[in-house]
Amino acid sequence: MNDIVAHLGIGFAVASSWTNLLVAALGSFFGTLVGVLPGLGPINGVAMLIPIAFAMNLPPETALILLAAVYVGAEYGGRITSILINVPGEASAIMTTLDGYPLARQGLANVALSLSAWSAFFGSLVSVCGIIVLAPLLARWALAFGPAEYFVLMVFAFCCLTSLLGNRPVKGVLAAMIGLAIATVGVDANSGVYRYTFDSVHLFDGIQFVVVVIALFAVSELLEMLEKVMGGHSVEVQSSGRKLFNLKELAYTWWSVVRSAFLGFGVGVLPGAGASVAAAVAYSNEKRICENKDPDAKFGRGDMRGLVAPEAAATSSAIGSFVPMLTLGVPGSGTTAVMMGALTLYNITPGPVLFETKPELVWGLIASLFIANVMLFIMNVPMVRLFSKVLSVPGWLMVPGILCVSYIGVYAINAGTFDLIMVAAVGGLGYLMRKGGIPMAPLVLGVVLGDMMEQNLRRALSMTDGAVHILFNSNISKSLWAVSLFIVVVPPLMRYLKLKKLAKARGV
Amino acid sequence: MNDRILGTAALIFAALMVWFGVGIQAPFSYEPVGPRAFPLLLAGIIALCGLWLVFKGLDKAEPNPPQANGRIALMVVYCFLYAFFFQKLGFIVATTAMTILVGRLFGGAWAKVAIGGAVMSVLFFVLFDRVLDVVLPLGILENIL
Fold first, then answer.
1. Which of A39, A297, A365, A507: CA 20 to 30 A from A216?
2. What is the 3-state secondary structure (H, E, C) of A431-448?
3. Are B105 and B74 in the same domain?
């Protein structure tokens, strides 16, 4: 217990230095802007800022705080548009539209916004406490991992991420493999041999992570926007009515918030399941519980409990998804994979040892996730008008702006033309892959984990002189293999059985 | 763009990986698994996925609305041009030009995109290069500024 207090002390000391507070405030603000823009979510905002944070020579903990604040802010911004104009800014905000927009139509837009800010804040409180309790335990457990266990753990992470993609697991596997293949380019750390460099100096160090991320999450995103011409939205925020929720509404929604926050954290800790899954699960869960108890529940027509449930769950799972990245060094979602890539720019490899060697980084990040949420809670209501103004920025200015900021970031890393041309090329290919239905999250995870995965595999195999049984020897690896197999096999099997049942029902 | 094309592309990619990968060999080897094994393993799995998509895949991508493909291709060209001229012409000139071209693609009027581009590029230059210490190329404006 004393340990935890001491660690939190370090964390808050780091996070509440003036620079870091300022960075957290700017990050939450910028993140909210990005989140409000349709089509851009947390992963895009984080991707665009990584190289810029690096080029500004921010120390690693400050850079990480910035990215975390952007992440949380963007999750937040996505909700503003869901509530005001029924357009979810990003995937995890879809559930918010169901009850948020009807509330806004009833003239309760400000109440809905402040209530959603409150539930997101509460969600962050729960999940930060969860991290504080759970992370050191997991990290201690992970210290027992050898190379074989690590390899299996990464296989497990990929299985989680691809099986959650629903009915296209093959494309998820393909995406992961392409990501891993991208990571093999460059000099091989063990033998010093150049692989797939085609004698180009620019490729000796491999394909820059930043290049891949910007290409996939900025350039190809912009290409997708071209499919339909966008006009600016003009939004009217009705200023009539109360600005804040009252105590009665707080009490009315209290248990929904609490339940969803805990549920969200649980979902977030699992690798692969992100904020959108958490929001969906929490919403349907609350709907079931409340409609059983209360025949007057009007879910889908502006029930406040239907608004707070996905909010609390999404935020709490977004923060919970930091747990596998920080403790095991294996990110569980696209966004945390991108963040882990950012850390590798600083030559920091997340993992259990990080808690011992860089406590200020880990605990500073945890503290700042909390601080960012407090800031957003304060910022949210007075600044809604400003944020919704962003929606009226026309596409012809917004798209060049995004492209420009992305290129600035890529240029900042190496100050050369080669990386920029790579961005254009990978961005074009990325668009084609998106059109083919290849998911981007496993691909990024592959790029981030590629090196580590190969190194651990080779290290494990060199212990037994090439015999494969070491990968199945320990109890940890056995259970990880079993769980991986389970998640890969069971969902398609269930779908198959369901289809068969349906066909039977129809046939008879 | 349906699954058959995607699968074929994956097969070609795997073949290329093998073609350029078989020659990878460490001059001295201390470990049982060399630098060649992992890429070839990946190529194998990619090929399997490709085969599955060719024979079993049923997805068809939604066709884009008319003219969208042309605009997207044009946008890719602009991305390449912007990349190519970013350093040569310098940030301000290249960004202004890019904003005009891309802005036109997104339906902005000539005058608006020209003014928007000029203002934005100067603003970003001041913000990033001067305030945030992210060095940007001046290019052809080097002697003037």
1. A365
2. HHHHHCCCCHHHHHHHHH
3. yes
